[in-house]
Specification:
The chain is mostly helical. It has helices at 15-29, 32-35, 47-74. It has one domain (15-74). It is built from 3 helices and no strands. α1 runs antiparallel to α3. The mean pLDDT is 84.
Length: 81
């Protein structure tokens, strides 16, 4: 049902966008037994700290990708800006 101002109803997000959003969550929360160690020491950091910092940096990139997918879906003509 459209709202009183005539906006279209909310649509479900694209499966690819949801998958991109779940990658960092999975990598940081559900893979702990795989990376919970100190050695090796990349860039002088314990591996577990290095792993988390990498995902903290990668998360905005993946969220940007999910946003771009959703923005493209909601354009009337489906074209890039």
């Amino acid at each position: 049902m459209p709202d009183p101002e005539g906006a279209p109803p909310a649509r479900r997000p694209a499966l690819v966008a949801v998958a991109l959003a779940l990658i960092p969550l999975t990598a940081m929360c559900f893979t702990v037994p795989l990376w919970d160690r100190i050695d090796p020491m990349p860039l002088g950091l314990p591996f577990n700290l290095f792993w988390l910092i990498c995902w903290i940096v990668l998360t905005p990139l993946l969220m940007w990708g999910a946003y771009r997918i959703e923005a493209r879906r909601h354009r009337p003509d489906g074209s890039d800006p």
